[in-house]
Amino acid sequence: MSWIKARRRRPVAGYAALLLGLVMVTVLYGAVAGTGGGGAQAQSPSSQSDIAAGETLFNFNCSSCHGFGGVGHAGVAPSLIGAGAAAVDFQMSTGRMPAKEVGAENERKPTTFTQQQIYEIADYVQSLGGGPTIPDAQQVSTAGADTALGEELFSANCAQCHNAGLSGGALTYGKDAPPLTQATATQIYEAMLTGPEAMPVFGDGAISPQAKRDIIAYVLETRSETSPGGLTLGRMGPVTEGLVIFLGGMGFLVLIAMWITAKRREPWDAAGSLPGSGSGSGSGSVSVDALDAPGDAWTEH
Question: What is the distance between the alpha carbons of residues 92 and 125, in angstroms, rounded to a whole number?
């Protein structure tokens, strides 16, 4: 121990200890960052041929907005360096990318790419700067998931935007939280990893992988539930229910009021003349005063 104390007295020893501490922190951070993003990729490890094919597809379909090499264009499209394969798979598998136009929100639509082409582009973007990878089947499996806990987590973190009935909702500046009625388990997991559009990122430090599976289990089970009360009305809660009751009730009351206040018209009134009246001079006519006279109801002239 004496030689250690002797070295500590030297100024160089302090710098060496500081440098060693920085190296250890860097190694630990790299290990945590490498495992906290999103696990193994769903497809086989990417090869150089997949990356090259993805680069060709990217340059042809994506570079006009995101730039060659994924550097992005200010005010048009963000940089994809560090976005990761999970972000690419989510955006392209839901048809949000490539976008038709630059807007506040890219809505879900049918994709024009095969899953293999999406994987190749994802491999290329992953090679640019890392990022969350595509979750595998085990990561998104709901086997053994706690649906009740998933409901609590969804209510605390997701329902404010996506609605308790998964129907989505409007946000500010023209954005919206999309409904979760069509999202697959992989897409839900990827959305939590990458935070697309206005959605925040829920990394493994915020919501653990098991908690993500619980949320996915709740979403999938809620979508498959029947509606014992009748029509779901979009699963938007009392707003639509109250609107239907209001419109239906008001319409019924209006019809009743029109029926009560409608003028009762006699058959001859509808024809525009009284009984017995005629256009010819020889035809009998009825005195209007006779209608009020006692005795005979009609008096002919």
Answer: 13
Read off the pLDDT of residues 80-120 as tens digits, 9 standing for 90 and up: 999 999 999 999 999 999 988 888 888 999 999 999 999 99
Rounded Cα distance, 119 and 166, in Å: 28
Read off the pTM: 0.64
Residue 11, token pair as written in the block: 């100024």
Own/partner pairs, 57-65, CB within 8 angstroms, 24+ separation: 57/113, 57/117, 57/120, 57/121, 57/124, 58/121, 58/124, 58/125, 61/98, 61/121, 62/97, 62/98, 62/121, 65/98, 65/99, 65/102
Gap between the Cα atoms of 18 and 38, Å rounded? 32
Radius of gyration, alpha carbons of the chain? 37
Residues with Cβ within 8 Å of residue 231, at least 6 apart in sequence: none
Cα–Cα distances in angstroms (integers) from residue 234 to residues 36, 151, 244, in the given order: 36, 19, 12
